[in-house]
Design brief:
The protein is an alpha+beta fold. The protein is built from 14 helices and 22 strands. The strands form five sheets. Strands 3-2-1-4-6-5 form a six-stranded mixed sheet, sandwiched between helices. The longest helix has 30 residues. The relative contact order is 0.08.
Length: about 475
């Protein structure tokens, strides 16, 4: 077995990249890195018991040259008898329409292509040809952009348990020697030889100077630093993930609300990690969320203004409202919520589909009041006029909160309770047949139907979020 293949095999084992029976989509551009990856995996597939599927995307950047790349990949796929998917997408047009940079737009579309192919062929992993030189270049690129420790940890060996990079410990020279020993000639992207992108400038101009005049081993040093930072980033992410539930008030696929008091009790490094985790939960792409964006959120949190809004890349919206911070996807209707109204079954269970929750009502003389549960209240049944309804707020709503002698506007009550404006339409209200608000769920019940010494029959109502 070739020394290069042995090294790749060891790296795969050490990082648990491939399991028995896995199907692997291999991204093959036709360049040296992806061609070496293809052949290394081809020679390992029987021993490690996995199958391959080749994926190639013609980005339409280089006309006839890129079309020749696609033909080259097809020829190797047929030679190795590996199934393949080759497609062409007019990436330049998409980039112009969406005002993306060439590098960023191509990367996004390429990963979308890999995801789709993996889904179509029922693959377990996607293997990419990033190598140690790419890692060193990425470290310098992110350093120049002011990345934090998370960004400086570089390219991950395994991402999301799906994307694997078996060549990340192999240098470009090792890859070229391997191909030479096999008698293989790879395609060359002519644009890689021109310093028109930052990565090209670093590879063609900066790294040679650093190797010649400062440290001939600079690439290995940068890769080792990335390895150290990756391990530390994994630990910090694990700690942040364990602390996160103590900060989260509510969590939905597109919205997370966190308590600022609990967040600010944490070390600043953990605060940054928690914010990144929350953004990752609501956004499918956080590659554009950089250190300065996280710092902007922290600045917004420390701002003395009770209500602030910040828009981040990829339509991530940050809303500070009093002591809470909401992270969500910014959409034209993000602050709108439809009117709803349900009849409450007494006794019984009432499903509130629009809130993905339910109300449970019971009549019981001996029910115990639980003052620690703000989503459960007990009422004097004889002071209530049934049937009861559950709805959200309406214009002109008034309410007599427990402990107050007179009424107040529901709007003023929400302001006093620091209920974020965008959440007020989502707060369920328990209302009697004559329109009286009996309970602002989660906040306060009405003083008019409170339990007294003369109460004979009690109504217990619980709000339960699924």
């Amino acid at each position: 077995m070739h020394a290069f293949i042995k090294k790749v095999k060891s790296f795969i084992f050490d990082n648990r990249m491939i399991g028995p029976g896995d199907k692997i989509v291999v991204g093959v551009s036709g360049g040296p890195d992806s061609l070496a990856l293809l052949y290394a995996l081809f020679y390992l597939k029987d021993e490690l018991n996995f199958t391959l599927h080749i994926a190639h995307l013609d980005h339409k950047f280089r006309g006839v040259e890129s079309a020749a790349d696609a033909k080259f990949v097809e020829e190797h796929a047929r030679k190795l008898e590996i199934p393949f998917t080759i497609e062409a997408i007019d990436v330049p047009s998409i980039i112009r329409r969406n005002r993306l940079s060439s590098e960023d737009g191509a990367r996004r579309i390429r990963y979308q292509f890999f995801d789709r192919v993996a889904a179509e062929v029922n693959a377990d992993k996607v293997a990419l040809g990033h190598n140690a030189d790419d890692q060193a270049e990425t470290m310098l690129m992110r350093l120049f952009r002011g990345a934090g420790s998370h960004g400086l940890s570089g390219i991950p060996k395994v991402r999301d348990g799906r994307y694997i990079r078996p060549l990340l410990s192999s240098s470009r020279s090792e890859i070229e020697n391997f191909l030479s020993d096999l008698g293989l000639s790879a395609r060359q992207d002519s644009s890689n030889q021109r310093p028109i992108y930052l990565r090209n400038k670093i590879r063609l101009e900066l790294l040679p100077i650093l190797e010649t005049e400062y440290n001939s081993n600079i690439k290995n040093v940068l890769c080792r630093t990335a390895e150290i930072l990756q391990s530390e980033a994994e630990l910090l992410d694990k700690i942040a993930a364990e602390i996160l539930p103590t900060c989260v008030i509510t969590s939905h696929p597109s919205t997370i609300e966190i308590n600022l008091d609990n967040l600010q009790k944490q070390h600043i490094a953990i605060q940054r990690r928690i914010l990144r985790l929350c953004i990752a939960d609501v956004s499918s792409n956080i590659s554009d969320i950089r250190f300065e964006h996280i710092e902007s959120i922290l600045h917004l949190i420390s701002n003395s203004k009770p209500n602030c809004i910040l828009i981040l890349p990829n339509n991530v919206k940050i809303i500070k409202s009093y002591d809470n911070l909401t992270i969500c996807q910014a959409t034209p209707t993000s602050d709108e919520f439809p009117k709803f109204e349900y009849g409450l079954k007494v006794p019984g269970i009432t499903k509130l589909q629009i809130l993905d929750s339910m109300m449970v009502a019971n009549l019981d003389e001996d029910v115990v009041i639980d003052s620690d549960n703000r989503f459960r209240e007990v009422f004097d049944w004889e002071k209530i006029k049934p049937p009861l309804r559950v709805r959200n707020r309406r214009s002109g709503d008034r309410f007599q909160p427990l402990g107050m002698r007179g009424e107040k506007r529901l709007k003023d009550f929400f302001i006093d309770e620091k209920v974020p404006r965008r959440l007020r339409q989502r707060v369920p209200l328990l209302v009697s047949d004559d329109g009286e608000i009996l309970w602002v769920v989660g906040y306060r019940m009405s003083d008019r139907c409170k339990i007294t010494a003369s109460t004979r029959q009690k109504l217990a109502v619980s709000f339960i979020h699924k």
